[in-house]
């Protein structure tokens, strides 16, 4: 990554580059807290959706309850057309290049719902352009990208909500954290995180790029590769290295470990903190299975999915009093086991004796509000998560899923992925945020960017 002297110069350079994409001259964007706080109900925030695929079209309708969706951006013309009709009755401004969106002075907020490998670059440039952002998880593709995002967030003061909406689930996940915080489990000893098996594919042939898809721009920072697609008519399935299935390629994502892992490992680490225990990780060890061979952490085949299909990993923490086991072959969810009892929570249920005891001994009235950091509770799950984002914009405070706490959790997911790829224990120093004692593993904390798609701050 190229370093430049000041954040201000980076912001000026970005705005100058973006201005060249439009016919009208752009001026530096100034978006102040007072502008948000002074808005009446008829002067709502205006937001743009960047990435109009599945996650984008699921989350943007929630955002529309709180802000006006005025622009859509995607490198696939089919997504733009479908999203425009579905979300905006055909009235949105449409873009193929996100920089044109960020250059618009009248857009206050962006929702970033692109594939994982694009998150960091777009988010950093959005913050430099003066935008607050709701960015889907996982926030980054690497550990070092997270350090960069956190640096820019601190320097710009932008509000960034990560789309880990389980942090805004009050009837299950926050209730589970409140049970733990109230001492109902005692000291935690074991946490089992079930995140299901990863994707599998046969050999996927090179195929013609679909009409309307800008494949080069879809790849963006990722290494150059051929578009691949296979339709399995017998099983009504398809396999590809693009839409939907990008997460099964290390070039674009981290597989299940950064997919469901970014949700459930998050809750697990919040549970450790809620119990009053130290959740600083020190090592990740275990085993994993892939469908391709690896050499020095690099997959040796490029014609099939390459992220881990199966895994059984243990995360140790600095105090040594609790172990987190991450695996594919148990129920999806989080099992907390403590000295006094155990509970299991996922998106469908919260069960265990301590939950049953709530009927006779309810939690203190403020218990859930306390684990939600005392912020207003409006709705549940995604609606509450967006409401929290808007509240944080109005008050210029960190949202419930801020980039700093998110990255501490996500770094565990990344360390687990490096462990899987190298097949050995990975040691971590939380104080310096560095992998220790393993030069190759440490080199995997970052990645090169394709020419023309570098991140500059």
From TrEMBL:
<dbReference type="Pfam" id="PF19051">
    <property type="entry name" value="GFO_IDH_MocA_C2"/>
</dbReference>
<dbReference type="InterPro" id="IPR050463">
    <property type="entry name" value="Gfo/Idh/MocA_oxidrdct_glycsds"/>
</dbReference>
<dbReference type="GO" id="GO:0050112">
    <property type="term" value="F:inositol 2-dehydrogenase (NAD+) activity"/>
</dbReference>
<feature type="domain" description="Gfo/Idh/MocA-like oxidoreductase bacterial type C-terminal">
    <location>
        <begin position="203"/>
        <end position="454"/>
    </location>
</feature>
<dbReference type="InterPro" id="IPR043906">
    <property type="entry name" value="Gfo/Idh/MocA_OxRdtase_bact_C"/>
</dbReference>
<dbReference type="InterPro" id="IPR006311">
    <property type="entry name" value="TAT_signal"/>
</dbReference>
<keyword id="KW-0560">Oxidoreductase</keyword>
<dbReference type="InterPro" id="IPR000683">
    <property type="entry name" value="Gfo/Idh/MocA-like_OxRdtase_N"/>
</dbReference>
<dbReference type="Pfam" id="PF01408">
    <property type="entry name" value="GFO_IDH_MocA"/>
</dbReference>
<dbReference type="InterPro" id="IPR036291">
    <property type="entry name" value="NAD(P)-bd_dom_sf"/>
</dbReference>
<feature type="domain" description="Gfo/Idh/MocA-like oxidoreductase N-terminal">
    <location>
        <begin position="45"/>
        <end position="163"/>
    </location>
</feature>
<protein>
    <submittedName>
        <fullName>Inositol 2-dehydrogenase</fullName>
        <ecNumber>1.1.1.18</ecNumber>
    </submittedName>
</protein>
<dbReference type="GO" id="GO:0000166">
    <property type="term" value="F:nucleotide binding"/>
</dbReference>
């Amino acid at each position: 990554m190229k370093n430049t002297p000041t954040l201000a110069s980076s912001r000026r350079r970005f705005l100058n580059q973006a201005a060249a994409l439009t016919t009208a001259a752009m001026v530096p964007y100034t978006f102040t807290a007072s502008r948000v706080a002074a808005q009446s109900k008829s002067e709502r925030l205006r937001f743009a959706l960047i990435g109009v695929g599945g996650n984008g079209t699921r989350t943007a309708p929630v955002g529309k309850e709180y802000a006006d969706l005025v622009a859509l951006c995607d490198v696939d013309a089919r997504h733009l057309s479908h999203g425009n009709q579905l979300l905006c009755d055909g009235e949105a401004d449409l873009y193929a290049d996100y920089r044109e969106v960020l250059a618009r002075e009248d857009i206050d907020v962006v929702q970033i719902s692109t594939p994982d490998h694009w998150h960091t670059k777009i988010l950093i440039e959005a913050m430099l352009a003066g935008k607050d952002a709701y960015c889907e998880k996982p926030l980054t593709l690497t550990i070092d990208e997270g350090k960069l995002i956190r640096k820019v967030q601190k320097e710009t003061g932008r509000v960034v909500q990560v789309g880990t909406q389980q942090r805004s689930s009050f009837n299950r996940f926050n209730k589970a954290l409140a049970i733990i915080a109230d001492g109902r489990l005692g000291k935690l000893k074991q946490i089992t995180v079930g995140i299901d098996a990863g994707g599998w594919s046969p050999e996927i042939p090179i195929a013609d790029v679909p009409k309307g898809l800008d494949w080069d721009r879809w790849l963006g920072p990722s290494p150059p590769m051929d578009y691949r697609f296979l339709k399995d008519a017998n099983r009504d399935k398809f396999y590809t290295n693009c839409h939907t299935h990008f997460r099964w390629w290390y070039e674009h994502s981290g597989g299940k470990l950064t997919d469901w892992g970014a949700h459930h490992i998050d809750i697990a680490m919040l549970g450790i903190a809620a119990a009053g225990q130290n959740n600083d990780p020190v090592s990740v060890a275990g085993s994993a299975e892939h469908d391709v061979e690896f050499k020095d952490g690099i997959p040796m085949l490029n014609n099939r999915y390459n992220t881990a299909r199966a895994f059984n990993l243990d995360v140790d923490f600095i105090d040594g009093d609790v172990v987190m086991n991450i695996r594919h072959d148990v129920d999806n969810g989080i099992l907390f086991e403590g000295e006094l009892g155990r509970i299991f929570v996922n998106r469908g249920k919260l069960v265990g004796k301590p939950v049953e005891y709530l009927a006779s001994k309810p939690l203190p009235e403020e218990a859930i509000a306390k684990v939600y950091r005392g912020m207003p509770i409006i709705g549940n799950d995604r609606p509450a998560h967006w409401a929290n984002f808007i509240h944080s914009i109005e008050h210029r405070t960190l949202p419930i899923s801020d980039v700093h706490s998110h990255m501490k959790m996500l770094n565990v997911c990344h360390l687990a992925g490096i462990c899987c790829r190298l097949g050995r224990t990975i040691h971590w120093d939380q104080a310096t945020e560095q992998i220790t004692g393993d030069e190759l593993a440490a080199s995997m904390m970052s990645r090169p960017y394709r020419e023309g798609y570098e991140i500059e701050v």
